[in-house]
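Input:
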Amino acid sequence: MLSYWLEIVLAIGFVTALIIPVAISDKGRRSFVLAVRSLWLHKLRAFLSVMGIIIGTGAVIALMAFGEGSMQDALDDIKRMGATNIIIRSVKPPDDGSTAKRSFVAIYGLTRHDYERIATLQQSGTITRMVPMRVFPAEIRRLEKLHNGRIVGTTPEYADVNQLELAAGRFLTDEDCLEMRNVVVLGAAVARDLFPFSDPLSPENRGTIRLGQYFYTVIGVLRDRMPTGGTGGSQAAEDYNHDVYIPLETTRARFGRTVFIRQSGSRMGEQVEFSQITLTVSDIDKVRPTGEVIREILRQHPRQDWAVTVPLDRLEEAERTKKRFQMLLVLIASISLVVGGIGIMNIMLATVTERTREIGIRRALGAKRRDITMQFLIEAVVQTSLGGILGAVVGLSITFLVPWLASLLGETLPAKVHVPSIFLSLAVSVTVGVLFGWYPARRASLLDPIEALRHE
Amino acid sequence: MPAVVRVIDLVKNYYLQSDTVRALRGVNLEVAEGDFVALMGPSGSGKSTLLNVLGCLDRPTSGEYYLGEENVARMTDDQLSEIRSRYLGFIFQSYNLLPQYTVVENIEIPLLYQGCKLTEETRQWCISLAELVGLGHRLDHRPLQLSGGQQQRVAIARSLVNRPQVILADEPTGNLDSKTSDEIMMMLTRLNAEGKTIIMVTHENDIAEWARRVIRMRDGQIESDIRNKRPRGFGDSVPELPLDNLTPTSPVNVPNSYSPG
Ligand SMILES: Nc1ncnc2c1ncn2[C@@H]1O[C@H](COP(=O)(O)OP(=O)(O)OP(=O)(O)O)[C@@H](O)[C@H]1O
Ligand SMILES: [Mg+2]
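Output:
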């Protein structure tokens, strides 16, 4: 955050350093005004000739914004999932016809055996925390009200790992788990839905939540939680606000090993011991190696009924995306530099020929070669700078418009304005003006005054 | 009267691929301060070439040219620019105003290249010059909105703005009818009466009659040099104008240390 502001301050300083000499000196201001007036005589021509620069600048700013946006998105995700966490999930394998008995009960996923094998890593101190979870869809009832949500059976540490924030009450405790209490923590949406008017924690609401055949008492309500973005198919985007949390042991005792899920009319049995195990690794450098070790352990499963997500991988992915954007950016910037530069040079050469007589007049009235060079150079730079500013406006509009359009179509396209890229592309525009304006300006200054005066 | 312009054995050759054009073949000339010279001669006799050399727009092939005390013949391009901007005023046949500038801005141009700051004071000076040539009511007009005579008057005002030592005019009335020509000549005569040195190229005898001295050229050499006993305009009722401040404040003096940057 600090470096972000530092960048902005530096960038603004850079631009003021460019502007001040022009603004302060009488001559600078005058040259600027005269250049703008000369350009104004051929508005359309000037506009068309800086088109390359407008497009280049706009593209650079927009692309950087999308690169930044996806990076920020990834960072937010990682923060939410925990940078030192590893998430192991049970994944239902595709039905393979070869399995002889096609039972109605699908048995897959992480088992107690897996849990114990992974737990051995705890002894080396690499893993500081293991939070198992069992998740299944369920009808959450209170009186005549029904909320279709999910039951999450878990342990107290879940709250820390997922950085849960309580709106009221408390989360599960070790006692809740040991005694297999019938207690429940509600997600924000569930609480809103089932307790529209009363406080879920008040004594008269004790034991009014029904899950399956048993009644439960609300001990806590969570704050609204942002949904997590999906990661490469291994994890679907989740909305936590429809979850309710009960002790893991309680799910085992009350729901048994197999739960039946109504799915498009038919009932499907599922026997999954752990839907997910979330591990916390002691050291951020050990996250990836630990992930590999766990993958190695789970590879012994006969079927691919598991998935390991390392949130830190998201970071790598985002960095790769960003790098790709940056490479594209360099490409586009250099193309626009060349194309824009050629456009400017072309128009400036034409201008010099067209205004040969003017050059002769100015020379006769005392202009030195240097004055003529400066006049045309300033004109070129003013032109490219205005092009750059226009391009920045275009780029920023894209940055704000495209995500908005995407949101209308139900897509999310994160974009975050990358401030240095604005100043970078403006600096490039100025440089293009200087580089490509130099030759025509020099040519203008080398004209012979008498011949220039005779020019029609 | 000291000579403000002194030319010794001036030669100007143009080297083309096939042959050499000898435009000036040893011209010797002295022009005193406050003189009014008309250069005449057939087409191709070298009048414009001589005027360009005198105006420091061109360098001679050989010979010496003293403007004031300074030998201008060997100066660098930048030094010549400096001389033009400080000590010379130009009036052209085709006016040569910048179309994108207003009357006042056109008059200001030479000041721009003197490196002097454009202030309210210089602006007032330019306006007073515009008034002097009778265009006080046209300050914000563009050249294309003016008649030829009016444009030439702007050019005269412009040639005065740097308080020049010498005004050089190449056929200043070449594009104008006789009535407007007389107006312009009246104006130049008035300036001369106030002490300005004027060197003017012309084809027409009635225009040359306004000058104090008529020099005829032929084949790059001076053929004759005659004092006009009674120039036109002399003794006419020329309205007095406050032109004291038009005379140069300092003699022609380019610092020797001047180096082109
Ligand atoms: N740039 C040049 N290159 C080659 N020859 C030139 C050049 N300028 C002038 N001349 C030649 O020099 C000679 C003198 O030309 P100059 O223009 O001085 O004549 P002028 O007396 O002004 O004629 P006019 O009355 O027609 O204007 C002519 O023969 C002309 O062809
Ligand atoms: Mg001529």
